Amino acid sequence: MPLIPEEPQIYESVPGPRNAAGAARTPQAPRSTAPLPGPRPTPRPAPPRADSKGPSTPGRPEAPRTPRQGNPAAPPTPAAPAVGGATSAAAQIQLVAATDATAVEAADETVDKLLDEGRSPGEILLLTTGEQHPWAQHELSFGEDAYWRQLTEGEDVFCAHTSAVAHTTRRAVVVLAVNGGTDPEAAAALPAALEKAAERLIVCGDPQRLRALL
Predict the structure, then answer these.
(1) From CA 188, how far away is CA 176, in angstroms rounded?
(2) Region (Disordered) spans which residues (predicted)?
(3) Which structural domain, as residue segments, surrounds residue 34?
(4) Residue 170 in contact with residue 135, Cβ under 8 Å?
(5) Are residues 61 and 97 in the same domain?
């Protein structure tokens, strides 16, 4: 019989320390309640952000379509205004206003623009009707063989006089600087230069004189 009251006393003492331990755990509960679970739901809305990126991914394939549209934009460049509307089956004529004294300078600027547009130097032929281009004068000083060899190699812009146009090869763009010569010489240089142009013929000269010749 005396054991019976002692047992409940033991049982009562047991929950006592458990409650104390529970009280110790309760302060740990706020540690466990640290905002770790809180930010976890926050990354859950992040997937919808990924979804928002999802439509952007199909937009990226559309981006390459824009450069594809940029490639056909190259043909519009030859579609610039032609002189009096004169065109050829192979090339289109464009005019850059200049005087005889500034025609070579205008031709050089035109070549720079073509290179900036992405043209290869070997695609450009520069012709003059009057005095030789300074580049041609310099290269001819080393001999005609070395001079014409550069035309064959086709690695750079080639400059020549229209009197030697028959010796030149056909290139994508021909820039004709009307920097002198008689009207008959300039008139003969225009169709000769046009035959050498596969895509564009850009004429730098006096617009009134050129329209009269055309």
Answers:
(1) 12
(2) 1-85
(3) 3-70
(4) no
(5) no
d(CA 174, CA 111): 9
pLDDT in the model for residue 58: 39
Is there a single domain that holds both residue 11 and residue 106? no
Q: Whole-angstrom Cα distance, residue 13 to residue 34?
A: 33
Q: Report if residue 124 sits inside a domain.
A: yes
**Residue ranges, the chain, pLDDT below 50:** 1, 5-88
**DSSP of 64-115, one letter per residue?**
HHHHHHHTTTTTTGGGSPPGGG-B-SS-EEEEEE--TTTHHHHHHHHHHHHH
Query: Which DSSP category does 156 fall into?
Result: S
Residues in contact with 185: Cβ distance below 8 Å, sequence separation at least 6, in sequence order = 129, 162
Provide the domain count of the chain.
2
Contact between 101 and 180 (Cβ < 8 Å): no
- Inter-CA distances, 128 with 7, 10, 12, 29, 196, Å: 122, 118, 116, 91, 14
Last residue of a domain, one of 41, 70, 99: 70
Report whether 203 contacts 173 (CB < 8 A).
no
